[in-house]
Amino acid sequence: MDRAARAGFAARGVLYLLIGVIALRVAFHPGDGEQADRSGALAEIAEKPFGSVLLWALGIATAGMALWRLSEAVFGASGPDGHKTHKRLFSACRAVFYGFVAYSVMAFAAGAGGGGSSDRQSKDITARALEMPGGRWLVGAAAIGVVVAGGWILVRAVRRKFHKHLKTGEMSRRVRQAVDVLGVFGGVARGVLFGAVGVFALVAAVRFDPDEAKGVDDTLRAFTQTSAGPWLLVVIAVGLVAFAGFSFASARYRRT
């Protein structure tokens, strides 16, 4: 489980690094047709030498993360409060999330496309949910949950809650400072991104219009439509790259 977790953190770092780099390119060349989401990142890998092998390795490593989170849900996580019910529930939710990510990566590697872009998936899922009895309330509740999750990620990053999960005693002073910067900056950017996705989903629920829902790619592009122009997207993109760096540091120093 320890090795599975570390491989999973490294895989997460690769995905966020590529999404951040693609988002930077989108900020200055929005018409290039690149997708700044998981599908875009996987397509970027597929174009490289031995891309198929790399994709399978990435999928297996992400599956390792899902298994580790599942083990936390079943047996409890490390730390004094790792056996509390809410901690186990969080781990179970994360296991499901990373299981879905692993499936989509391996489906992409197998040539099935991995379910398409995040934007199309968001619109399709929202449309199906809105057609259900009480669908507007269901989408609204899910959207609020995503907004709250984004705020939770942001606050935890600012308060440096990640310290308790890292082996800081094994770090030099400079490494610890670097990990602090990456963890705070990266966590804030990730929280803002999650929160924005949730806000667009909430708008879709209020207006009863699935086209208002946005995936990661469309949400990142929406940052360029603010008064800051492309520079807000640049900041978020650099933050996602920073979170990739934090993920790589977690692969080395995370307590499992």
TrEMBL record:
Coiled-coil intervals, chain numbering: none
Domain DUF1206, residue spans: 7-75, 92-160, 185-254
Annotated transmembrane regions: 9-28, 48-68, 89-110, 137-158, 179-208, 228-249
Keywords tagged on the record: Membrane, Transmembrane, Transmembrane helix
Highest taxon in the source lineage: Bacteria
Protein name per UniProt: DUF1206 domain-containing protein
Organism whose genome encodes this protein: Streptomyces chilikensis
